[in-house]
Amino acid sequence: MTRWTITPESPGSPAATALWRAYYTEVSDRWYLRHEGRRTDPAELARETARVTGAELAPPAGRLLVARWAGEPAGTAGVRLLDAARAELTRVYVAPALRGRGGAALLVGAAEAAARELGAARIVLDTRGDLVEARALYARLGYREIPAYNDDPYAEHWFGKELLTRCA
Fold this sequence. Notes:
Elements: E1 4-8, H1 14-35, H2 42-51, E2 62-69, E3 72-81, E4 86-94, H3 103-117, E5 122-127, H4 132-140, E6 144-145, E7 157-162
Parallel strand pairs: 4-5
Antiparallel strand pairs: 1-2, 2-3, 3-4, 5-7, 6-7
């Protein structure tokens, strides 16, 4: 039986880089198709995926998690400390062909555990209105809408969740 595996990985690894490109392409294409009726320009895709390296997701103040299905890179989730008590969840992505197999919930759970290990008592995130699947996932996993905590021009919804301490 094929199962998910989730492990921390360097944001610059080949798997993490390929998944970042796939994630960025999907969310960028959705934005441009919705607002301008076109897909992401390849030059913009190359420029932005190279500019936003994910360095903030590396230890000691962050973690990037890579999910694999049957050993192949299939998804990511990242966390980074915003301050002593809060971590931000970001880059939650599962390859389209593997959606519906529980990978996203496992990634978010692993990211929450990583945030607790970093010392966070609360986790927050932002997302867009057109990412309805993401908003449904977060609500199902206990996230609640909160006031904006950043000024990201693409963010339309902000969510937060208290991180309960796990008993051994």
